[in-house]
Structures are given as structure tokens and as C-alpha cells.
Amino acid sequence: MIVVLKQNSDKERVERLMQHFTDMGLRINYSEGEHTTILGLMGDTTQIDERDVLAYDVVERVQRVSEPFKAVNRKFHPEDTILSVAGRKIGAGYFNVMAGPCSVENEAQIIEVAEAVKKAGASFLRGGAFKPRTSPYSFQGLEAEGLKLLLEAKRQTGLPIVTEIMSEKHLDLFADVDIIQLGARNMQNFMLLKELGRSDKPILLKRGLSATIEEFLMAAEYIFAGGNQNVILCERGIRTFENLIRNNLDISAVPMVKMLSHLPIIIDPSHAAGRRDMVQPLSRAAIAAGADGLIIEVHNDPKHALCDGAQSLDIPQFDGVMADIQRRVAFEGREMQG
Ligand code: PEP
Ligand code: MN
Q: How far apart are CA 84 and CA 148, in angstroms?
């Protein structure tokens, strides 16, 4: 349920109303926008009679929210959320490109790619240290050593880093990571969602391989429910009957999520396509659809990459794609972060 307050309401009276809801065991999401202030009520609101709430003179109107996601619902927070991470703004009019290899392989590789993507204008360095692989015999990532190398690349280039977590047991290792990625395969790992909810780190939450948009937003709701409001969503393609393409980029998820939620959403064209020649067209589609950024795989030697080489751009290709992205982001009147 949302309670829209009258403009310039007396603070003390608002506090009295909030106390009334807290006494009923409800949690309140307070959202003060430019024009409206909204109390989003979470918990068992079936006990509330709307007429009782309207009796408070600070209340403009009361509306029931039928969607199961509350805190991430745009009705609770009508304005776009803008996150600020390492001096970069994410969301609304700001556009970020996160780029780097699928996996951190060695120091020379990650430093070379970090320098190149920074030069091309990326605002974050991506790279997996803990890798969720379909086969237990595939390269599993350098794990803690990979995190160290990423931090070294961050130190040398100044680029903030985004990297995937696979277990809540590793959270301490991620203390200096700027954005923690929760991968598609863990989107409904509820223990991990709860732990990330208790942390204050920005979370890049990737959509599960077969998750509906509602399930995707409910996963974000878990993180919010724990108190962490720093969530960036990522559409990375879903499973369909089509098998020529690794995953199907669900471009309609962008406007749909924007309608339903205030959270930023970026696109991963690399995992969606599974092939490098589709990264540019899908990036263009993402910008046109209103995405807040892209996460792109880049490798200094894709032929010999230990993971996802076929979808990784080499450095000159990334330079070309970035130049194209920059032109199109400017055309859309949005501001590139770098
Ligand atoms: C990745 O970003 O390398 C990755 C494994 O992504 P996803 O979880 O979307 O498959
Ligand atoms: Mn990958």
C-alpha cells in the first residue's frame, strides 16, 4: 500500500502517522521526491482500512499496490534511482559501460585489458574471479588470486571493478570490490540474496536464464528487504526455443522494468548473443530501448581466452564499438560516465 502525503505537510503530524503504521508492525519506505512524498507500507496491510488512513489530514490519497514487489516498485519511488559508485552516476540520464574479460586469467592480461577499456571510455572494469561454469572440468576462475589481480588493475588504472560472487562465505574477500555481481545462475539463491541485502555494496543483479520479469524484481526485492538499496539490474538474455543464439536478448525487459521499477537496468549483449559480431547491434538496441548502460566482454586475445572467447571483442573491436556507443548515447541526450 502507498500513502501519498499532501505537499508541505507538517513534519510532526507525518511522524505521528508513521508511528501509527510502525505500531501496527509495518515497515515504511519513505520516499521524498521533488513534488510528492510517499510512504510505502510493507507487511500485512490487509489489516488497514483505507478510510482510517484518509482521516489523517496529511494524507492526500491511499492506493493498494497489487504487485508482490514493493520497495523496488516505481509506485513506492516514482523517480528513477541514481546510484553513485566510485564517483560514477548510474541510472536516469547517466550511461555506463562496464568492460573487461569474462575471467581474470593472469596479471598481464587483466592489466592490458583494463588499460585498453579505460582508454576507450569504459567507466568500470569487469572480470570474473569466481566463475560459475556448466562443466566442473572447465576453468573455474583464479578465485581469491583473481580478486587480487583485479584490485591491482584498479590500483594501476583507477577503474572501479565489478566481479561475481558465488558464495556468501566469500563476502570478506569482496570488501574492496566496487560492484558485486550476482550472476544469472544465482538470481534465486536466496541465502546469497539475503546476505547481499545485509551488505551495503552496490549489487549488479543479473536476470536468471529462465526468470520472469516479476521473479527478477522479486530477487531485487530480497536485497532491498535486507536494507541494501544499491541494486542495478542486468538483462543478459533468456532461454527460448531458439538455439542459433546463445540466449535471446529480451529487449522488452528494459521498458517493462522501467515502467514497473525505479531501478537502473543495463544490458549484457555479450552473454545474450554468445558471438562477438552481435555485440554492436545489441548494444545499439539497448541504448535505443532506454537501458542505463552495458556490460561487455573484452579480451586482449579472444582466440586463447579461457572462457567465452567467441563472444569477446578484441581491443580494436571494442574501440570501434565504444565510439559507436558514445555517438548514440549523445544522440539520446544522455551523459556518458567515464
Ligand atoms: C559473466 O558475466 O561472466 C556471467 C557468467 O554472466 P551470467 O551470469 O549472465 O551468465
Ligand atoms: Mn562470460
A: 24
Strands (E), 86-123: 88-90, 94-100
Q: Nearest to residue 185, comparing CAs of 234, 237, 132?
A: 132
CA of 321 to the centre of ligand 2 (A): 18
Residue 93 · residue 335 · CB < 8 Å: yes
- Residue 254: C-alpha distances to residues 235, 280, 304 (Å): 8, 17, 33
pLDDT one-digit tens code per residue, 197-223: 999 999 999 999 999 999 999 999 999
Gap between the Cα atoms of 126 and 160, Å rounded:
9
Q: Which residues line ligand 1 (CB under 6 A)?
A: 102, 128, 132, 183-185, 206, 236, 268, 271
- Which ligand is located closest to the Cα atom of residue 299? 2
Three-state secondary structure along 219-244? HHHHHHHCCCCCEEEEECCECCCCCC
In this predicted model, what pLDDT tens digit does every residue of 35-77 receive, in sequence order?
889 999 999 999 899 999 999 999 999 999 999 999 999 999 9
Cell of 56: 489523517
Using one digit for the tens of pLDDT, what is the confidence trace for 109-141?
Answer: 999 999 999 999 999 999 999 999 999 999 999
Q: Which of 105, 163, 164 should be mutated for ligand 1, with most atoms under 8 A from CB?
A: 164
